[in-house]
């Protein structure tokens, strides 16, 4: 299954998004579909064997009544003098998934490429042309996400202005014919926006706000038209009410779009962190190129004030890097040769040369953007509650409006059609459940965006909702509570004559593992053995959480914990005197060659800065804190004591961590697990909420529901506070939305609210929900 996220035009309310989701979910080849009105985005999971061309997706979305806006990329080409080569380039681009069309301007030597908004980069387009022997550079890109958002706001503002200008003359009560002309213009020119939305909702079988607005204004318009052309006496017409109603709703829709644009500020802020150009070294000289043209292993030159264009490693120079986009911490970090730098971070001072290790879509910044976007499209369990109400609400309102008309016409008045129709129209307008549909997704989107700014990435809305309910926290030791950068405090070898050979073989074997202990031992052995490594390792096996084994130069080598070697039949206590095994606070790793103990490594690690404060803060909130470690008792207790944790388990295998976690869950506890390694993955998978540190392995990062890219433990209390704040905000919005309908529908049914007042109240309700959700952007972490 393939995944993609793209922008969709025509989502005018939450019900539209629900209708599109339902329609696409029923189509062949679509496994998952989730549309969001709040950020006008659609997430799709589809089968590439069934949907092989993007035009199939475009066709499905158009059939549902919506549209995908294409981006336009203009490329200046060099080396396209040959006509045959021009055609080859055009055909090569047209075959790319995500390219809508390609047109060639031979006079200007440019290509205009229309691409669907699925993240196809200009770098990929220029790379395709390069394969055809054509060098291309990007001239301009039009129709991007921010441009589309602004365009929608402009179009809505034009509709609002047109409606207001045509409505103003009606206030002077002109002749019935002129009123009819003006009202017709308002109803069917700017007002056709609602007819289009109503038709889409009927096709998708999910009635929305547009349907209610179109129905109510059409009823008033038709009744007023009837009076204008059939009743000759001086009688009140309701064209003004119909037009004012549309003006107020257009104003509300415009304000919604403005507020919706603000909710996307966090994503745009992340996108703006990527610089447009970079300076690199090529052929012995420095040149300035587009960031999209940077390739792996290019040497990037950075001066003070430059943003890092790609993930990399410093070759020379030192600097102060502002990593607040990763950690939420504004204090710059000193970087020296060998240290890693991340795309989007800012060089505050100093000059460096760095080699690019990850570029384009593979950078940490782009992964963060993709994670946030996907998370913002996910649904929280609390949203199911609101969706179930909204799905049944509009049909119920239609029946209620019809019933109220009958009650007023037949029972409460002497067959007064005017009053009955106006009251029923007021009910239709005021009952729109837009506020209910916006309450949850808006809060979630703003909350996740703010979390990303503070160095916390939520994979889904469910994780954000559940985090504030956690009452038990489990921490792994190495790499989570500690820095994870192990150092060899002491090394003992028992055959000095073969020490050089042993160092080479252990270094070669440990290079195959990503465990922090293996990395430290490999670096130590390589340095002590003068950096010489054997040609190859004949075989390699890793028992996660225990150790590694393999065959190097015909020798069977084991490296791992005491338990691991003893399980392999190596009796450590009988091999040497027991004074080689003191109960130290260090982590001990044993190495054997051909069944005999050959060496012992004692590894030291430091408690993370701020770890003890984080533990104290969690405990002060009534959260029970545990530490599970695969290390020996004394080493585990030493870190546990320093951090202030009393519940400590040591020598725990990966499956043992998962077992302990399930045991706590059976006791009725909601458990969060924070870890960073492969051996934490089983427990992370079982946890109610799982957290991976930013320096963790890919498996841990893929398993976890929450990621801390900067690896700061201080972000955990911040994430809990933000989760609680978001859920409080959502509950307040839901209560307001339900209270609004509970109060306003009876008032409209009693004739107290005419359609114009009902429209103003409905717009105010939706805008207030959006503005209340936007308050989450001002969330500030507590000082620790």
Automatic annotation (TrEMBL):
GO terms for molecular function: ATP binding; ATP hydrolysis activity; copper ion binding; P-type divalent copper transporter activity; P-type monovalent copper transporter activity. Residues 2-69 form the HMA domain. The chain crosses the membrane at residues 178-195, 207-229, 235-255, 389-411, 417-440, 733-749, 755-774. It is a multi-pass membrane protein. GO terms for biological process: copper ion homeostasis. Keywords: ATP-binding, Cell membrane, Copper, Copper transport, Ion transport, Membrane, Metal-binding, Nucleotide-binding, Translocase, Transmembrane, Transmembrane helix, Transport. Coiled coil: none annotated. Its EC number is 7.2.2.8. It is found in: Cell membrane. InterPro entries: ATPase_P-typ_cyto_dom_N, ATPase_P-typ_P_site, ATPase_P-typ_TM_dom_sf, ATPase_P-typ_transduc_dom_A_sf, ATPase_P-type_domA, HAD-like_sf, HAD_sf, Heavy-metal-associated_CS. CDD domains: HMA (cd00371), P-type_ATPase_Cu-like (cd02094). GO terms for cellular component: plasma membrane. It holds the Pfam family E1-E2_ATPase. NCBIfam families: ATPase-IB1_Cu (TIGR01511), ATPase-IB_hvy (TIGR01525), ATPase_P-type (TIGR01494). Belongs to the cation transport ATPase (P-type) (TC 3.A.3) family. Type IB subfamily. This is P-type Cu(+) transporter. It comes from Candidatus Eisenbergiella merdavium.
């Amino acid at each position: 299954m393939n995944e993609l996220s793209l922008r969709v035009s025509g989502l005018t309310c939450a019900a539209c998004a629900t209708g599109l989701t339902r329609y696409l979910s029923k189509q062949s080849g679509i496994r998952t579909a989730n549309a969001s009105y709040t950020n006008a985005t659609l997430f799709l999971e589809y089968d590439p064997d069934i949907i092989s061309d993007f035009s199939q997706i475009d066709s499905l979305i158009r059939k549902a009544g919506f549209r995908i806006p294409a981006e336009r990329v203009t490329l200046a080409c060099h080396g396209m003098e040959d006509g045959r080569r021009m055609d080859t380039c055009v055909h090569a681009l047209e075959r790319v998934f995500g390219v809508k069309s390609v047109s060639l301007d031979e006079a200007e030597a440019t290509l205009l490429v229309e691409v669907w908004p699925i993240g196809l980069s200009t770098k990929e387009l220029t790379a395709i042309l390069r394969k055809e022997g054509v060098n291309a550079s990007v001239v301009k890109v039009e129709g991007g996400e921010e441009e589309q958002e602004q365009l929608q706001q402009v179009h809505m503002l034009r509709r609002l202005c047109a409606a207001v200008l045509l409505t103003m003359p009606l206030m002077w009560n002109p002749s019935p014919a002129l009123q009819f002309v003006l009202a017709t213009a308002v109803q069917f020119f700017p007002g056709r926006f609602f007819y289009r939305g109503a038709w889409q909702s009927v096709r998708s079988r999910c009635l929305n706000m547009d349907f209610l607005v179109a129905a109510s204004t059409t009823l008033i318009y038709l009744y007023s038209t009837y009076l204008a052309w059939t009743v000759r006496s001086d009688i009140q017409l309701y064209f003004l009410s119909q037009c004012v109603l549309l003006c107020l709703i257009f104003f509300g829709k415009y304000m919604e779009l403005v507020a919706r644009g603000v909710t996307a500020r966090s994503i745009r802020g992340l996108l703006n962190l990527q610089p447009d150009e970079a300076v690199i070294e090529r052929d012995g000289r420095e040149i300035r190129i587009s960031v999209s043209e940077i390739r792996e292993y290019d040497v990037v030159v950075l001066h003070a004030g430059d943003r890092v264009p790609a993930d990399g490693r410093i070759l020379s120079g030192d600097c102060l890097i502002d990593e607040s986009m990763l950690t939420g911490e504004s204090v710059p970090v000193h970087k020296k040769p060998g240290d890693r730098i991340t795309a989007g971070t800012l060089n505050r001072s100093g000059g460096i040369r760095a080699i690019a290790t990850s570029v384009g879509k593979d950078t940490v910044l782009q992964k963060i953007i993709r994670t946030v976007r996907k998370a913002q499209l996910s649904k929280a369990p609390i949203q199911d509650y609101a969706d179930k109400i909204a799905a049944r609400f509009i049909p119920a309102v239609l029946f209620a409006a019809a019933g109220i008309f009958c009650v007023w016409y037949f029972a409460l008045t002497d067959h007064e059609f005017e009053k009955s129709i106006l009251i029923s129209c007021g009910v239709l307008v005021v009952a729109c459940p837009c506020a209910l549909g916006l309450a949850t997704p808006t809060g979630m989107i703003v909350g996740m965006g703010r979390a990303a700014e503070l160095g916390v990435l939520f994979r889904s809305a469910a994780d954000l909702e559940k985090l504030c309910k956690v009452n038990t926290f489990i921490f792994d030791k190495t790499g989570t509570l500690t820095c994870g950068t192990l150092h060899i405090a002491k090394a003992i070898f028992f055959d000095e004559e073969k020490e050089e050979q042993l160092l080479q073989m252990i270094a070669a074997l440990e290079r195959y593992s990503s465990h922090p202990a293996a990395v430290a031992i490999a670096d130590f052995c390589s340095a002590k053995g003068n950096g010489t490594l054997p040609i190859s390792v004949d075989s390699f096996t890793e028992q996660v959480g225990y150790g590694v084994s393999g065959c190097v130069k015909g020798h069977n080598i084991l490296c791992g914990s005491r338990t691991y070697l003893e399980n392999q039949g190596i009796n450590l206590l009988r091999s040497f005197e027991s004074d080689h095994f003191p109960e130290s606070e260090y982590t001990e790793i044993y190495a054997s060659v051909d069944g005999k103990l050959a060496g012992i490594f004692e590894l030291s690690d430091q408690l993370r800065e701020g770890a003890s404060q984080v533990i104290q803060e969690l405990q002060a909130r009534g959260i029970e804190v545990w530490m599970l470690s695969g290390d020996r008792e004394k080493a585990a207790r030493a870190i546990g004591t320093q951090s202030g944790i009393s519940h400590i388990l040591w020598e725990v295998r990966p499956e043992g961590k998962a077992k302990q976690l399930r045991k706590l869950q059976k006791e009725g506890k909601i458990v969060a697990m924070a870890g960073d390694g492969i051996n934490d993955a089983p427990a992370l998978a079982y946890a109610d909420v799982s957290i991976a540190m930013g320096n963790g392995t890919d498996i841990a990062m893929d398993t976890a529901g929450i990621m801390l890219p900067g690896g700061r433990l201080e972000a955990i209390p911040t994430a809990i506070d933000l989760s609680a704040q978001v859920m409080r905000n959502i509950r307040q919005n839901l209560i307001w939305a339900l209270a609004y309908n509970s109060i306003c529908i009876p008032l409209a049914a009693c004739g107290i609210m005419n359609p114009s007042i009902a429209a103003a109240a409905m717009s105010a309700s939706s805008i207030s929900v959006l503005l209340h959700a936007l308050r989450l952007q001002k969330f500030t972490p507590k000082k620790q």
